[in-house]
Amino acid sequence: MSLLTQIDSKNVPQHIAVIMDGNGRWAKQQGESRIYGHYEGVNSVRDVVEGAAQAGVKYLTLYAFSTENWNRPKEEVDALMELLVATISGEAPQLNKKNVRLLAIGNLDSLPPKCLEELNESIQLTSKNTGLTLVLALSYSAKWELVNAVKQIANAAKNNQLAIDDISEKTIENYLCTKEIPDPELMIRTSGEHRISNFLLWQLAYAEFYFTDKLWPDFRKEDLFSAIINYQNRERRFGKTSEQLT
């Protein structure tokens, strides 16, 4: 029996963020190149997206490519970009059929033209969908995002479009990539690593963290359901005491 039946539909995290880690190590265990692991990881993406929709999750953000990933060997980066193009163009029709809306965050202008073209076409194709919103973090880092937000806020203040005394948390949120997306309640990282690797530093301030030793190509929807159930067994206090909540 699927773990989906054990999920409390009234307490499903609206937004789940995932650091998809372990493709390279998984491939090494199979005696294959790191690139092979990235290709196999696409199957996990497909299954987890389906599981998130089944569980009633509204937003699913996947950390697909960080700004630091550009420093990997050129062969791997080139293969990843080719995989992104092929995956985005190949999956878009199915996403559209399943009422999934696609968005992307990050320094998107740094992507190769072909990749950016396919991405924008897929975003446009699925823009009217009302089900799960799948957010791809591409060429993304939280420090880049925050620096970019500070620059825009400073420029607005310099041009007298924003008073310094009016700058608040909401102001900063309005200049982030995720300004139209609610903050994640649950962040999942695979592969046994216990860090967030420059991912959504502002947005994860009150998220619950869930770490699993499973490598990303082995992670499936049942693992997602298990993470959601674990989340539902936690007490989220937001600075209050347990007594205040009850």
Separate helix tally = 8
- Major beta sheet, strand line-up: 3-4-2-1-5-6
Roughly what fraction of the amino acids lie in strands? 5-15%
Order of helices and strands: EHHEHEHEHHEEHH
Question: Per the principal axes of the C-alpha atoms, what is the gross shape?
Answer: globular
Structure in words:
By secondary structure, the chain is of the alpha/beta class. The protein has 8 helices and 6 strands, in the order βααβαβαβααββαα. The protein has helices at 23-29, 34-55, 74-97, 113-125, 142-158, 169-174, 221-232, 242-245, and strands spanning 15-19, 59-66, 101-105, 133-140, 186-189, 208-211. Strands 3-4-2-1-5-6 form a 6-stranded parallel beta sheet, sandwiched between helices. Helix 1 crosses helix 2 and helix 2 runs parallel beside helix 3. The longest helix has 24 residues, at 74-97. The mean pLDDT is 94.
SSE diagram, text form:
Layout: E1 15-19, H1 23-29, H2 34-55, E2 59-66, H3 74-97, E3 101-105, H4 113-125, E4 133-140, H5 142-158, H6 169-174, E5 186-189, E6 208-211, H7 221-232, H8 242-245
Parallel strand pairs: 1-2, 1-5, 2-4, 3-4, 5-6
Helix pairs in contact: 1-2, 2-3, 2-7, 3-4
Question: How would you sum up this structure in a few lines?
Answer:
With 246 residues, the protein is α/β, with parallel strands linked by helices. The chain is built from eight helices and six strands.
